[in-house]
C-alpha cells in the first residue's frame, strides 16, 4: 500500500488542498446513520497516483465536522473515481452542499463489461488484480475516536485500487466501444434530485402499504408524508418517529380519540402526548381526501403482453452483448413506462440507441 496520511480536518486541512490539481482522485467515505435521517460523515478517504489520505471531519475528540470551504472546493475539482458511489456522493452533498464536476463509478463500468451488476469493491479488486481485501470491519463504528490503526488501514484499502481499476476498466471498455456508456451512467449520479426527499412520496417507503385501498390508503399516504417531514425536520430515522407497523394500524383502524390512539400497538405514550392531536386531525382529513384512495395502476392484459414483448427484446439485446438484462432496463422501469412514464434511462443515451426507440414504438401502440 502507498503511504497514507491521517488528516484532522478540524485542525488543518491544508495538506489536502493540492488534490485540486489532480486530474482524478479515488474517493470513498465512512459514515453513520443509525441515529439520524441523514448520513453523518465520519471519514473521507482520498487516493491520488502516489498518496492516500484519510481525512477526519470529526477530529480526535469526535466533535462537529468543520472542513473549510477551501477544502471542499479543492475536493470537487478533480474527477472522482468511486465504487457504487451513490451513498458517498449523497453524504458529501448533504455535508457540503457540493457535487464533483465529474464521476466515474467502477461498479457501473464493471457491469458494462459483463461482471455481475452489483459486484462489490473487494470482488472487483480480486477479479482485476488477484488481491483479497480484508472486509472484517464493514460494521465498525466509524464515529468513535481515536480511530484504531487497523481501521485506518482498512479504510485506506477502500481507495487503494480505485485509480488502478479505473485504468484497467476504461481500457477494456474502450476496446468494446462502451466507455461512453460507463461515462453516461456514472454522470447520472450527479443528478441532485436523487438526493432530495419528497415527503408526498413517502408511502412508497412504508412497508405493507402497497395493497391498501380506499380510506386506509389515503390515511397511510398522509401519515407517511407527515412522518417523513418529521424525520427530516428532526434528523431522526423515520422508524424512530413511528414504526411502520404502528403507522399501518393507525391508517387501517383510524382511531378518533386520544385513548383509542394509545391502544395502537407500538404507539408510545410520549408520541401521543406530543403529536396525538395532530395525528387524529391527519386521519380525519384523509377520510375526505379521495385523491389518495387508489394504489398505483397496474398493467392490463394487453399491456402485459406488450411488456413481455419488450422484455424479450431487451433479453436478446443483453444476451448478444454479454450483459445482464436488468442493466439495460429493469422490469420495474418497464412497467412504469408501460403506464406512461417516459423518464426511464432506456429512452435516452446509449440505451435508446440500442433498443429505446423500438420499445417506445411498441409501448405507444398499446
* Amino- and carboxy-terminal Cα gap: 57 Å
Rounded radius of gyration (Å): 24 Å
CATH superfamily of the largest domain: Ribonuclease H-like superfamily/Ribonuclease H
The averaged pLDDT comes out at 92
Strand residue content: 5-15%
Low-confidence stretches: none
Q: Give the biggest sheet.
A: 6 strands, mixed
- CATH second-level architecture of the largest domain: 2-Layer Sandwich
Within the largest sheet, what's the order of strands? Answer: 1-4-3-2-5-6
How many helices in DSSP terms? 16
Query: How many DSSP E strands?
Result: 6
What is the CATH class name of the largest domain? Alpha Beta
Describe the structure concisely for a colleague.
By secondary structure, this protein is an alpha/beta fold.
Please render the helix and strand layout as text.
Blueprint lengths: L3 E5 L15 E9 L7 E8 L4 E5 L12 H8 L2 E4 L3 H11 L6 E3 H6 L9 H9 L19 H12 L1 H14 L3 H9 L26 H21 L3 H4 L2 H10 L4 H5 L6 H19 L13 H21 L3 H4 L2 H8 L10 H16 L2
Parallel strand pairs: 1-4, 2-5, 5-6
Antiparallel strand pairs: 2-3, 3-4
Helix pairs in contact: 8-10, 8-12, 13-15, 13-16
